[in-house]
Design a protein that fits this description.
Distance between the termini: 30 Å
Strand order of the largest sheet: 2-1-13-12-11-10-8-9
Radius of gyration: 20 Å
Largest sheet: 8 strands, mixed
CATH class of the largest domain: Alpha Beta
Structural class: alpha/beta
Helix content: 10-25%
Order of helices and strands: EEEEHEEEHHEEHEHEHEEE
CATH superfamily of the largest domain: Cytidine Deaminase, domain 2
Oligomer: single chain
Number of domains: 2
Length: about 270
């Protein structure tokens, strides 16, 4: 199951409508080697055996390419998606990469949460309950502002951007990086250093949204997260639980909200998100 349907609300101009969108699934797979947690990979389910074997090869955990270990299913979730596997590897087949088990995290996008087991994913903390609202017009203006200052992208076409804005839609800070996770971290750091941490209402990102970006937004206590591209299924799930208004496909005069639409308003009172 590589995709999942989610209810959403499409905003276009001063109109909005409910719809159902199909998102790429992002789920955790914990890989144990000889009884110990080796890594936690965030991936789209499917071809898991090939994924595990390829990862163990590329990381030098198995030194013999011809050795094909048996994957033992240890756990599945309620949807039947594999969430934990055991890989028994004889000592003579273990490579030097096995010693890096506590530092390795393989994700579906560049970013590190530093976790090696499913239990470590449990996220504690009260969800965000900010009652203020943000207009779709200010959202479009925010992306225009971010686009204008993406100098590295204009030169290379290979960098991501993130920016923070206040409730009036004014930019507080901006950052670029080859990884969108790094760009988000830089923005959070700038907000702290500039003592504007509490003024941030929105963070925009130039790429897609994984669950890690949602968590970074939550840790920074920024209630609205918006991206140019798609969110993953897990990003939407986390946003709903953590009180994050999640906007995606923010291009031209369009934007789609997948979680906490109550913070998004338009000029047309009849289409205010509910």
């Amino acid at each position: 199951m590589s995709t999942r349907n989610y209810q959403s609300r499409l905003y276009q101009g001063n109109q909005s409508e409910k719809r159902v969108d199909t998102l790429t699934v992002e789920e955790a797979l914990q890989i144990n080697v000889n009884g110990d947690a080796f890594t936690l990979t965030m991936r789209t389910p499917g071809d898991d055996q090939a994924l595990v074997r390829g990862l163990l090869h590329s990381e030098g955990v198995i030194k013999n390419p011809s050795f094909l270990p048996v994957l033992i299913i240890k756990k599945e979730n309620e949807q039947g998606i594999l969430t934990k596997v055991e890989v028994p590897i004889p000592q003579e087949e273990i490579g030097e990469g096995y010693s890096n088990s506590r530092n390795l995290l393989s994700v579906s996008s560049c970013g590190i949460c530093g976790k090696t087991s499913l239990e470590d994913q449990q996220f504690l903390g009260a969800c965000l309950n900010e009652q203020k609202t943000f207009s779709t017009e200010s959202l479009e203006f925010a992306f225009d502002q971010m686009s204008k200052v993406q100098e590295a992208f204009k030169k290379s076409g290979g960098s991501h951007a993130a920016a923070a804005f206040d409730w009036k839609g004014e930019m507080l800070c901006f950052a670029e990086d080859i990884g969108r996770h790094n760009a988000v971290d830089k923005v959070a750091g700038k907000l702290i250093l500039n003592q504007e941490y509490k003024n941030a209402a929105l963070i925009t990102v130039s790429g897609r949204i994984s669950y890690e970006i949602v968590i970074k937004c939550f840790k920074a206590k920024i209630p609205i997260l918006a991206a140019v591209s798609a969110p993953s299924s897990l990003a939407v799930d986390y946003a709903k639980e953590l009180g994050i208004t999640l906007m995606a496909f923010c291009r031209d005069d369009r934007a789609t909200c997948y979680a906490h639409t109550e913070r998004i308003i338009t000029n047309n009172k009849n289409t205010q998100a509910s």
